[in-house]
Specification:
Layout (H helix, E strand, L loop, with lengths): L2 H30 L2 H15 L8 H14 L3 H33 L9 H33 L3 H25 L3 H26 L11 H35 L2 H26 L2 H7 L6 H37 L6 H18 L1 H9 L4 H25 L1 H28 L3 H28 L6 H22 L3 H17 L1
Length: 504
């Protein structure tokens, strides 16, 4: 099994395990922390998340340029690129700390009416610890970028898997000793530093990479920064979409509203990660393909192939949440968080097209044509903020969810697809024609399940919910296997299965 396939499999194992751990971890976290403390933790996390944009897209930029240098075996170019990027990261880390401190004193006054003095004091402490964490984590992105460019996905995903397992266990152990939100952020910081150190060791010792500045190529630095700048704008857009709602609600409705909306955002984030796993391993390959126009049929094939796979996963989760989301939330975090079902379902609906097509973002980056997308989404993200603020005062979290989804549909559902078709020359009509046929087939297991459920009473326990989910998943898979999967998709399952049976 090659690194790319193994990386995808490990990623899905990580996400499945992350979902199971999250199912157990968050209720336990809420048991140690009050809803107000959890809301405060999410509020400060939303503030500090804006500082993550100061990566400026250098990680993906490093993957793109470093992959090309690996393909041409330009050792001196590799060393020079890494040394240049490392120096840029050093400058970013210094600026990050200064900007972060300034932002602390600018943001907190907006919350004096909704937070108590004690909560404001705790918020400052959490913020400073997270800022310290971020100052080291962002420059450390260079090491994970190097490992990904070398396509060593097994090591990279294995370390992430280990972090997923150990971090919540250590957090809960710390909370058992002292039930404080500060313990959560301290343990997370230590775990992140351990992961960063491990990636650095692997890149330097095992991959034998060197950081050596052979020449100061100002033109090349400008090219890197220009490429990174538009990725940076994309990151801003992501933060606006997924963090602004919480910041607005914190100012107009308090920490309890933030806690409920944060659950819906967490569910939507998990929804996003299940799709992006497949496409994330293709950036090095697309970067190499994008050097010639003759590679367009191959790029189109990857776009369609990955899009179909992502559509199967995305719609399974979307339909699954539609059918079981309310039961899941009640069993998971309690009836107080039930409004998060509606918010999450709205957000997931807006994400379907972007998630199915996120290989397109990698194609734009590989072809260095991502500037248009970045500019469009900065404009739409600004619209999201301006519309959300007045509507959130009147309609609360529901307004934040609908405005975010509407902006996603406008930006990625309409404008970006026109750009893919007209400029990048991707065969968008054929792509959607395939998805429409698959969608019609997907409705069959949903209808069959609803008919079965209408005649049977399953109950409302963890075990009955698990049984319902398994039954629906099997029904979904059978219908797709019989009516939707092509030969390539069937072989993804049959080939490793046959190899396993032969070994037996």
């Amino acid at each position: 099994m090659n690194q790319r396939k193994a990386g995808v499999i490990l990623s899905y194992i990580s996400m499945g395990l992350n979902a199971v751990i999250g199912f157990i971890y968050i209720p336990l976290l809420l048991a140690f922390l009050s809803k107000e403390q959890y809301g405060l933790y999410q509020l400060v996390g939303s503030m500090i998340a804006y500082l993550t944009i100061m990566d400026f897209g250098l990680a993906n930029t490093t993957i793109r340029y470093y992959s090309r240098l690996l393909a041409t075996k330009d050792i001196q170019g590799q060393e020079n690129l890494l040394a240049t990027v490392l120096r840029l990261y050093g400058i970013i880390a210094g600026c990050l700390f200064v900007v972060g401190l300034a932002a602390l004193f600018c943001l907190l006054p907006f919350y004096t009416n909704t937070l108590s003095p004690a909560e404001l004091h705790t918020a400052k402490q959490i913020y400073l610890i997270m800022l310290f964490n971020l100052t080291f984590v962002i420059p450390g992105n260079i090491f994970s970028a190097i490992i990904q460019a070398h396509e060593r996905f097994v090591f990279l995903k294995s370390m992430n898997l280990l972090n997923i397992i150990l971090q919540p266990l250590l957090v809960l152990l710390a909370l058992h000793i002292k039930a404080s939100v500060l313990c959560v952020v301290i343990v997370q910081t230590l775990c992140n530093f351990a992961l960063l150190s491990t990636n650095a060791w692997y890149a330097i010792k095992r991959l034998q990479v060197r950081f050596k500045l052979h020449r100061k190529d100002i033109k090349f630095i400008k090219e890197i920064l220009f490429f990174s700048f538009f990725i940076f704008l994309n990151v801003i857009m992501d933060q606006v979409y997924w963090r602004t709602g919480q910041l607005i609600l914190g100012a107009v409705a308090g920490t309890v509203a933030v806690a409920v909306y944060a659950v819906s955002v967490q569910l939507s984030t998990a929804f996003m990660s299940f799709s992006s796993t497949v496409s994330s391993v293709f950036l090095p390959k697309l970067s190499a393909l994008a050097t010639t126009e003759e590679s367009l049929p191959q790029i189109n094939a990857i776009f369609t192939k990955v899009g179909r796979l992502q559509f199967y996963v995305v719609m399974l989760i979307f339909f699954g949440f539609f059918l079981f989301g309310k039961q899941f939330l009640v069993l998971w975090v309690g009836k107080d968080f039930l409004p998060a079902y509606t918010y999450a379902l709205i957000l997931m609906f807006g994400l379907i097209i972007p998630l199915v097509q996120n290989t397109g973002i990698l194609i734009l980056q590989a072809k260095n044509k991502h500037a248009f997308r970045s500019i469009i989404f900065v404009i739409i993200a600004a619209m999201n903020v301006m519309i959300s603020i007045p509507l959130a005062k009147k309609y609360g979290a529901l307004a934040c969810a609908w405005v975010t989804t509407s902006c996603l549909l406008l930006g990625q559902g309409i404008i970006l697809n026109m750009y893919y078709y007209k400029i990048i020359k991707l065969d968008i009509p054929a792509f959607f024609k395939q998805l429409l046929r698959i969608f019609i087939i997907m409705c069959l297991p949903v209808c069959l399940f609803l008919v079965v459920k209408s005649h049977l009473h399953f109950g409302n326990t963890v075990w009955t919910l698990g049984g319902e989910i398994i039954f629906f998943t099997v029904l979904y898979f059978i219908c797709l296997w019989a009516l939707a999967f092509n030969t390539y998709e069937k072989n993804l399952i049959l080939t490793p299965l046959n190899k396993y049976l032969i070994r037996k």
